[in-house]
Design brief:
Growth Hormone, Chain: A, 16 helices, about 80% helix, about 0% strand, globular
Length: about 425
């Protein structure tokens, strides 16, 4: 029998010490990931003067194991205790990061990164599994939004801190050392979580085969009409964002070729918009439809991308920044919406498997969508690509709002 850990949860997430420990550990872990990426990008680009193709293998090394292993990791997370999984993954990732300090060649570093990313595939399912068990049902939106806020904050603080450290010391190794410390500190904080955060009973684990557990994870998704719709919306928005994300430099180069700092300003505005939107929902007490959040996210993201395609050389800087914040707000709403939908629609004993499936598809999109964007820009103009992607996302959001009552009227099963 599942042991509930939410019977005596405080009324406010800020008074929930278990959640605060988990959130602080998440902050340190995410911050370490960004510091690590900045350090290795600097090493490959400026110190080793690596070829562009070799540099492009860095994000692949981060994302590729997630495509292959996330579903496997999700099955095992549902069988194991999530607290121990998180502690072990952070400790092992910390050790792998320390090893990077002594690796002499790019290909060996990529090999260590693949190993560390493979270990990291256990992290997200275990983290979400813990959150489901340490907050009450009516706190899931606030907790999910807090996780999103911290994730977006680290996207701003991490690169800035890495750049600051590199400016002061010119040593990428210091960033790697700080990453090692962040991951080790995250593991130490997680040790303060209670040991009674457990899953289904041992007899069920012994009777079920790995294949049965994996199949059950897919049945959980395919058997839930609302969850399928939410995931389709989320993946559609993610695909659009990833298609245009890396091409924003190409678009801005055509519009304002002399303002090389403009991409940095827009990316910062996107991060600020995402932080503001997720932080807002971390303060919301009442229940909100996660499908409405996803529709709003698609609509705002689509409008922002559409407006970017309409800008020209005479457009003032403030409009670029406002559109960036609009895009960030849409991204933040989409993040909160999909995370909240998975938490609400998934049985607690299947959280790991569902997040594993979600993460494997997400990592595939993170690799495939930018490549698709590059191919499309070669075939068409950058502004045409932004207009088309923006129109599709806007149409998706508007259609979702119009069909929302019909789509959420019942929670019929597609697989019975």
């Amino acid at each position: 029998m599942h042991v509930s850990t939410t019977n005596h949860v405080p009324t406010s997430p800020w008074k929930n010490s278990r959640l605060l420990y988990a959130l602080l550990a998440h902050l340190l872990s995410s911050l370490g990931d960004w510091l690590d990426f900045i350090a290795l990008l600097t090493l490959f680009t400026y110190i080793w003067q690596a070829e562009p193709l070799l540099i492009s293998m860095l994000p692949v090394a981060y994302a590729f194991p997630g495509i292959l292993l996330s579903q496997i990791a999700g099955v095992w997370v549902d069988r194991w205790q999530p607290k121990r999984v998180l502690i072990c993954t952070d400790a092992l990732r910390s050790s792998c990061t320390l090893l990077l300090l002594f690796v002499p060649t790019p290909y060996l570093i990529l090999s260590v990164l693949l190993l560390r990313s493979s270990i990291g595939t256990f992290h997200l399912p275990a983290q979400q599994s813990i959150i489901r068990r340490i907050v009450s049902e009516n706190q899931l939106l606030e907790a999910t939004a807090l996780v999103g806020t911290l994730s977006q904050l680290t996207k701003i603080i991490g690169p800035m801190l890495g750049a600051f450290m590199l400016t002061l010391t010119s040593s990428y190794k210091l960033c790697l050392l700080l990453t090692t410390f962040c991951l080790a500190a995250s593991a130490l904080l997680l040790a303060f979580l209670p040991s009674d955060i457990s899953h289904s009973d041992e007899s069920n684990k012994k009777r079920a085969t790995f294949r049965m557990d994996w199949t059950e994870g897919w049945h959980t998704i395919l058997g839930n009409r609302m969850l399928i719709i939410c995931l389709i919306f989320s993946f559609s928005v993610t695909t659009i964002i990833q298609i245009v994300d890396i091409q924003i430099g190409v678009l801005l180069r055509e519009i304002k070729p002399l303002q090389q700092e403009l991409p940095g300003w827009i990316i910062s505005a996107i991060g600020l918009g995402a932080v503001c939107s997720t932080a807002f929902f971390s303060r919301i007490k009442q229940s909100i439809s996660y499908f409405a959040l996803l529709c709003a996210g698609a609509l705002l993201t689509g409008l922002a991308v559409l407006f970017l395609g309409l800008l020209n050389a005479t457009t003032p800087l403030c409009y670029f920044l406002l559109i960036g914040m609009l895009c960030g707000a849409g991204t933040g709403l989409s993040f909160v919406g999909v995370q909240f939908s998975i938490q609400k629609e998934t049985p607690s004993g299947a959280i790991g498997r569902v997040y594993g499936i979600y993460h494997s598809i997400l990592n595939f999109l993170l690799i495939a969508a930018p490549l698709t964007g590059g191919w499309l820009v070669k075939k068409h103009e950058a502004d045409h690509l932004f207009l088309a992607c923006g129109f599709f996302a806007t149409l998706l959001g508007v259609s979702g709002f119009f069909l929302r009552k019909r789509l959420v009227a019942t929670k019929e099963h597609l697989i019975k």
